[in-house]
Amino acid sequence: MAPFGARRRILDDDHPMTAETISMSRPPAARRPLFRRRSALPGFGLTLGVTLTILSLIVLIPLSAIAIKASSLSPAQFVAAAFSERAIAAYRLSFGAAFVAAVINGVFGVLTTWALVRYDFPGKSVVNALVDLPFALPTAVAGIALATLYSPNGWVGQYLTPLGIKAAYNPVGVTIALTFIGLPFVVRTLEPVMRDLSADVEEAAASLGAGRIDTILRVILPALGPAWLTGFALAFARGVGEYGSVIFIAGNMPYKSEIAPLLIIIQLEQFEYANAAAIALVMLGVSFLMLLIINAVQAWSRRFS
Amino acid sequence: MAAARARHPTEDPVWAKVLIIGLMLVFLGLVLILPLVAVFAEALRKGLQPALEAIGAADALAAIKLSLITAAIAVPFNAVFGLCASWAIAKHHFPGKALLITLIDLPFSVSPVVAGLMYVMVFGLQGWFGERLIDHDIKIIFATPGIILATIFVTFPFIARELIPLMQEQGVSEEEAAVSMGASGLYTFWRVTAPNVRWGLLYGVLLCNARAMGEFGAVSVVSGHIRGLTNTMPLHVEILYNEYDFVAAFAVAALLCLLAILTLVLKGVLEIAQPDVKRGGGH
């Protein structure tokens, strides 16, 4: 591959620029050029071409197949498939459990991050590594482990049953699995922001007479707001679509403990491809919405940093 | 007289520290630590021998092999994609860059089940290419290619999202210097860029591999669950568990746990040795 810089230099030597060509080649100052500054590095066309081709083949075209399949239904059929009583119960469970799990992670994620960033305690590096376990552990493994723990005669479940709490094979179990899945999203989003919180502000608040609780509630927590929201949204979005860790602990009773992704698989097994696509399209719509919200929150938080 | 050391105004009182660390440990214990312990306890419930036999069974070995093949194709594929995407995005200016990054991120927010479903819509019997594939006797769905495709999709952003911020941070000055002195693009990449991003690449590969070996939902849709043939390790765990063969299910699960622990240890070592890598992704 011929280096770009060298080739351009040769061209320049062959055609020394006159005043006219210089004025022509310079864009009007007021107009913002489309390509701000041409990078001198080669390979742009090739790498961007490969990127766009693979992205289209792996992600965009297959995703469009779902919309196209769902559009083979009439509007009435689509509503009947995507918003049947059973489907609505499944969305309610998937969204509801993901929301509750994200709230739980929102609370304990802040505590965990606070302890990891601010305190020293024995075993801290192990705890720090363990927080990422849900990223590394296959979801099915988490699923069977949690189902075993929280079943009525499991290690934890046996203490919950006398209290009248039925954890496994219930919406509670779904929430437990989604809490497992979502935790690192909250902690790892909060961590860098909490680390960068400047001590000056806290000291200023303290020296102005604010109590520790006041400082935390009015100075620290508001500063964490955007990162907290981002982590919450990431955990929620992941929870809505989660399948592997949930099906073992959920019980999978229609209308009661059946999550939306499972309903897609059931439709598929009954060869109701268009119905499966309709439910998938609703879930995709929610995913896109979550993605937009996350991006908006991040853009909003950048304005303050 | 033991004078009580005055507490710094930004330091929490001891009772608060104990309370927060205690709450954290109870929470992590219930959600993270006990499940991990339970997997090994259940696997070894009848001793080491039955657990090892379960892992050595023909179906289990076939599942391990398929998982390794899948990861061996999906991870390098995503690494090549990640390198191309990050070179184009981080080292050049072009309009629509933010949109492109969002699209690369898309698989993170698509349910794995939906990911599997979309490949069924394209390559399945009733899909776009279904009949043509049958005519040519090519099987993608309910076969290894479908499993690999689904795995590539769910792990698609891992390496790219690690490399893009890393390369952006490093800028273009080193590469520009090399090119202006007459180095070719490929030479510049191998001698200047690659050494700068190799640890970030390894970090991405590590996370990508963990997810590739462990993916369940997407693979479950396209696999067809044929024992010894289209069963990956997580799917094999599911089959054994649903057959109430708990010792065997947890034995294979324990093997996956060991892989996860190894991943976390290597990740921790990388983060300590090369703090730069942690600035990437976040997923």
Short recap of the structure:
With 305 residues, chain A is mostly helical. Chain A has helices at 4-14, 19-25, 44-70, 75-82, 85-118, 124-130, 133-136, 139-150, 157-160, 171-196, 199-207, 212-241, 244-250, 260-269, 273-304.
Write the layout of secondary structure elements.
The complex is a heterodimer of chains A (305) and B (283).
Chain A: H1 4-14, H2 19-25, H3 44-70, H4 75-82, H5 85-118, H6 124-130, H7 133-136, H8 139-150, H9 157-160, H10 171-196, H11 199-207, H12 212-241, H13 244-250, H14 260-269, H15 273-304
Chain B: H1 14-43, H2 48-56, H3 58-91, H4 97-109, H5 112-123, H6 130-135, H7 144-154, H8 156-170, H9 173-180, H10 185-214, H11 217-223, H12 233-242, H13 246-273
Overview of this protein structure:
The complex is a heterodimer of chains A (305) and B (283). With 305 residues, chain A is mainly alpha-helical. Chain A has 15 helices and no strands. Chain B has 2 domains: 30 residues; 230 residues, MetI-like fold, CATH 1.10.3720. The model of chain B has no long low-confidence stretch (mean pLDDT 89). Chains A and B meet through α1, α3, α5, α6 and α7 of A and α1, α3, α4, α5 and α7 of B.
